[in-house]
Write a structure and sequence with these properties.
The complex is a heterodimer.
Chain A lengths: L1 H25 L2 H16 L4 H21 L10 H10 L8 H26 L36 H4 L48 H7 L1
Helix pairs in contact in A: 1-2, 1-3
Chain B lengths: L11 H12 L5 E2 H8 L3 H13 L3 E5 L4 H4 L5 E5 L1 H16 L4
Antiparallel strand pairs in B: 1-3, 2-3
Helix pairs in contact in B: 1-5
The chains are: A mainly alpha, B mainly alpha.
Chain lengths: 219, 101
């Protein structure tokens, strides 16, 4: 495991050197050789290979920033590829800086994308049905004549012959299957109520004359 | 970015670099030493150093050593100029007054 780490660290050195040379070549010609020597000297101060790789990546970014900040007249590329990159990075958008121009470019691309999506959505618009409206029916459809339903014809509906052959015994209905030989309950003779012991004299619409209410109020 | 009047756009990283140099205004520092002191990465540090040099705040020169005897390559050393010292002092003084020059 440690051998692999050591091998990977050793393999980072060529990448780091290539990145620094590449970044220095991107820089303006007047600074290219100086920056390459300066960056290699500062790379020597780095302790680890990973730190050196990070330093080299930073140099690549630094060269882009330096090219962008230096005037175009002072920029002289050393190769055609670098010239194209420098021209792109050093492009001036009139009154705007490169950062502002990039911002407007991205915003414009987003606006164009949204406009395209909206126009595409309008082109494939789904027709929505109008709301429900009441209107008279000029020619009502005649009722559909259905074929007559034939009544069931039961031939020889003799169910009683099957009753004796049913496996379950018949349950007697206590209402209909009342036994016939039942002794009648002897009815008690009607007794007339006994007449009251005192004479009741009632006045229509009020209590009787012998009512205790009247007798107490008179007293 | 260096303005036409020699002013430099002041960012937090630029102020940190100036602060490192103001600790010893006559001293010379390489980019690696500035990185060790303030921790600014190379992608930000070298544009700042070149920006300040273009504005006349810094001067740079190669280290006067013999690489073979020293066992390492010569470094590029940066030093504050008198203009840079004055302007950097003004910038930090303006922070004390609450006004950025």
């Amino acid at each position: 495991m440690s051998q692999r780490i050591e091998q990977s660290k050793q393999s980072l050195a060529p990448v780091t050197h290539w990145l620094i040379r590449h970044a220095a070549r991107r820089a303006p010609d007047s600074l290219s050789s100086r920056l390459e020597e300066e960056w290699f000297a500062d790379l020597h101060a780095r302790t680890s290979e990973l730190s050196g790789l990070r330093f080299a990546l930073g140099c690549v970014w630094a060269s882009l920033v330096i090219v962008n900040e230096y005037p175009r007249s002072r920029v002289a590329a050393t190769s055609a590829a670098a010239r194209g990159l420098i021209t792109l990075a050093d492009r001036n958008f009139g009154y705007f800086s490169l950062r502002s121009g990039t911002l407007f470019l991205i915003a414009g691309l987003h606006a164009a994308l949204f406009y395209g999506l909206l126009s595409l959505a309008q082109r494939h618009k789904v027709d929505i049905e109008p709301p429900l409206q009441n209107f008279p029916v000029h020619q009502p459809q005649p009722p559909i004549s259905q074929p007559p339903v034939s009544s069931p014809v039961l031939k020889n509906p003799n169910y009683d012959r099957w009753i004796d052959k049913l496996p379950m015994p018949l349950v007697q209905d206590p209402v209909t299957d009342f036994p016939e030989n039942v002794d009648p309950v002897p009815a008690e003779p009607l007794v007339e109520p006994a007449p009251p012991s005192h004479e009741v004299r009632r006045v229509q619409g009020g209590p009787g004359l012998d009512s205790p209410i009247l007798t107490s109020s008179i007293r | 970015m260096v303005k036409k009047d020699g002013n430099v756009r002041m960012s937090l990283q630029t102020l940190r670099v100036l602060e490192i140099f103001l600790e010893n205004p006559t001293g010379q520092l390489a980019g690696a030493e500035v990185h060790q002191r303030c921790g600014i990465e190379s992608g930000t540090l070298y544009p700042i150093l070149l920006r300040l040099e273009s504005a006349g705040w810094f001067v740079s020169q190669w280290e006067s050593i013999d690489p073979s005897s020293a066992g390492r390559p010569r470094r590029r050393l940066y030093r504050l100029t008198s203009t840079g010292l004055r302007r950097a002092s003004e910038v930090f003084a303006s922070f004390n007054r609450g006004v950025l020059v």
